[in-house]
Amino acid sequence: MRVSDSNEVQWGERKLDQCFRLSLADMDRNESLLIAASYFWLDTLNAFVFGHGPASPTLADVLMLTGLDISSADTTHLFDTKPSAKVETRSIGGWSGYIQKYRRTGPVNVKEQTTFLNMWLDNFVFYG
Description:
Layout lengths: L1 H5 L1 H6 L2 H9 L6 H10 E2 L4 E4 L2 E3 L3 H8 L27 H9 L7 H16 L3
């Protein structure tokens, strides 16, 4: 929450705040439903393949399921900057060592923000 609060304006401009709010929502994962749905997913088509034919999720589905903004202009040019912090990840002793090394108190610096985003992406997007 400390990292999120310190970057609220910047992440709001890039529409990342919606993703962070969604990740904080208290939603239970229905494992059996996810397993059943993954049985029908075909990577080559990026669609669910049922007996009557393929079905793909639409942007309207994304809006209904997540509440994410699907109508704003594309602002990917805001992410064209080179990273200014290098984060050590391999010989650090797992996630607990990673957190202990980069966790700080006080103002959030660029390295701590980079570390937070790395962990957030791994947990919610790449599901590592």
